[in-house]
Amino acid sequence: MTRRAIIVVAASMMLASAACAADSQIWGGMIITNIPEYGKDQSRNLGPLFTYLQGNFFRSIFLGILLGIPAVFLCHYLVFGPKVFSHDGERIYVFTLFNRIIHLLAAVSFVILVPTGFMIVFGAYLGGGALVTYARHLHGIATIVFAVSVVPMFVFWFVEMLPAMDDIKWFFMLGGYLSRKKQEVPAGKFNGGQKVWFWLATIGGLVMIVTGGAMYLQDFGLGIAGGLGMSQIDLLRLAAIVHNLLAFAVVAFFFTHVYMSLFAIKGSINSIITGYKEEDEVKHLHSSYYRKLKQVRKA
Amino acid sequence: MSNGQARMKFYCDTTRCIECFACSVACSEAHELPVGISRRKVVTMHEGIPGKEYSISIACMHCTDAPCEQVCPVDCFYIREDGIVLHDKNKCIGCGYCLYACPFGAPQFPRDGAFGTKGAMDKCTMCAGGPEETNSARERHLYGHNRIAEGKVPICAAVCATNALLVGDAEEVSTIYRKRVSSRGKGA
Question: So which residues are the signal peptide here (chain A) (predicted)?
Answer without folding.
Answer: 1-21
